[in-house]
Task: inverse folding
């Protein structure tokens, strides 16, 4: 799979994720689209941007849901949230309360993801939220972009090892692909912003394919 083959919503999710990396934040993007694939709202992680009052609470999914103009697009139930990473507790709660009833997710997150909690509460379960997992190639690329960010910014080697171990639970190919890019010197004389999301996506995809073919 290549970036050009993605649907418009998924292209935008990864473009936002890479935009976050370029801004020093975590590589997570989210968009809300209608049945025709038209993007109605979007958000990206901004937790690494210190010019904001409380960046720790600015997550991609909550930003996308918060920015959806429900006056212009009242049919929230007919919308789909596309999320690069499994929503955390805060984002899952915002999803439940925000009226979106369909979600597509690229990468599972056993550490911070909270979608399984929907079935633990009668109120949340009553909303009938439909979840589609895309945790194959898209999951690998999502974790690959996150890995690039951590390799470039995380100074604590022990913490880095724990983070990448978590990323590798479901998407080791993406983690290894990102390591290959960094070790090959892609970011020695260039910044993340010197590359487009499409270039990074395709570079990771090629390396993931090689790894999967070798299994």
Result:
């Amino acid at each position: 799979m290549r970036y050009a083959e993605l649907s418009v919503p998924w292209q935008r999710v990864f473009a936002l994720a890479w935009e976050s990396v370029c801004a020093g934040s975590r590589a997570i993007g989210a968009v809300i689209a209608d049945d025709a694939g038209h993007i109605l709202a979007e958000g990206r992680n901004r937790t690494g941007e210190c010019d904001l009052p409380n960046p720790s609470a600015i997550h991609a999914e909550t930003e996308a849901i918060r920015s959806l103009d429900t006056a212009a697009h009242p049919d929230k139930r007919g919308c789909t949230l596309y999320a690069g990473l499994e929503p955390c507790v805060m984002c899952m709660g915002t999803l439940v309360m925000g009226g979106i009833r369909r979600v597509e997710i690229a990468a599972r997150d056993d550490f911070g993801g909270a979608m399984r909690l929907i079935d633990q509460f009668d109120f949340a379960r009553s909303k009938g939220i439909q979840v589609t997992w895309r945790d194959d190639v898209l999951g690998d690329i999502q974790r690959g972009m996150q890995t690039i960010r951590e390799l470039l910014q995380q100074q604590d080697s022990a913490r880095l090892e724990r983070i990448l171990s978590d990323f590798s639970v479901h998407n080791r190919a993406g983690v290894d692909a990102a390591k290959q890019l960094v070790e090959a010197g892609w970011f020695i004389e260039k910044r993340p912003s010197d590359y487009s999301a499409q270039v990074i996506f395709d570079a990771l995809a090629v390396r993931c394919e090689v790894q999967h073919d070798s299994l």
Q: What stands out?
A: The chain is about 45% helix and 15% strand. The mean pLDDT is 95.
